[in-house]
Amino acid sequence: MDATFRAISDPSRRAILDxxxxxxxxxxxxxxxxxxxxxxxxQHLKVLRDAGLVLSKPxxxxxxxxxxxxxxxxxxxxxxxxxxxxxxxxxGLGAVLDREAAKEREIKP
Amino acid sequence: MDATFRAISDPSRRAILDxxxxxxxxxxxxxxxxxxxxxxxxQHLKVLRDAGLVLSKPxxxxxxxxxxxxxxxxxxxxxxxxxxxxxxxxxGLGAVLDREAAKEREIKP
DNA sequence: TTGACGTATAAGACGTGGCTTATATGGTGG
DNA sequence: CCACCATATAAGCCACGTCTTATACGTCAA
Lengths: 109, 109
Known about the structure:
The structure is a homodimer. The first copy, chain A, is α+β, with helices and mostly antiparallel strands. In chain A, 43% of the residues lie in helices and 13% in strands. The structure holds a DNA duplex.
């Protein structure tokens, strides 16, 4: 989960995911959308691979990348806990909330 | 939007938001949940303030912090574009997708 | 008024992230 | 076979992020 949030913190990596949401692409294809260098792109792709957000496979001397949207469930699940605030009036800001959102008292990083 | 994604990339900051989702808290109250120093917490809170994810107000010599969940809409909106993949079979990975997700061809970081 | 409290800010240390150029490695086609 | 292509990896640089200790500043209570 941490790896996922870190992966999507970068705007270029979010853009890569957006592109792959339209369909598989090769590295050189993806490179056409950015101005940074090819190795920079490879590094971004590695972060996304390691976070489980993309899948890659060799196709000849190219490499195809595909989105693994399952990896984004943890993000959606986390942010879903905040949706209730958007449907209620914001004067509930100080209100004591549903126990579903209860967390452990001690958070150890 | 970038500031928001960067703010939530850190697990401690996500934990702060989770705590504030239950209700307003003072800085010293929040500090009780973490092992890092008070100035570290102040820095995290500043990141969250600057990203518009929390609101603060002085209450005597204390400072109350409250969640501003509106700031998380951009995250939810972004990840919502990926929900369609979870309801479909993953054999659609290579499929050409809805034009709603279309982006500009050139992405300038 | 003064000392204590609560918290923001300053400054420093150091690890990390994101970029670069260079190079290694595997695949292709003439 | 060899030159070219595509991309991953290596190594370096430097800005930034996150921590720390020290201190400044505003508020409170005796």
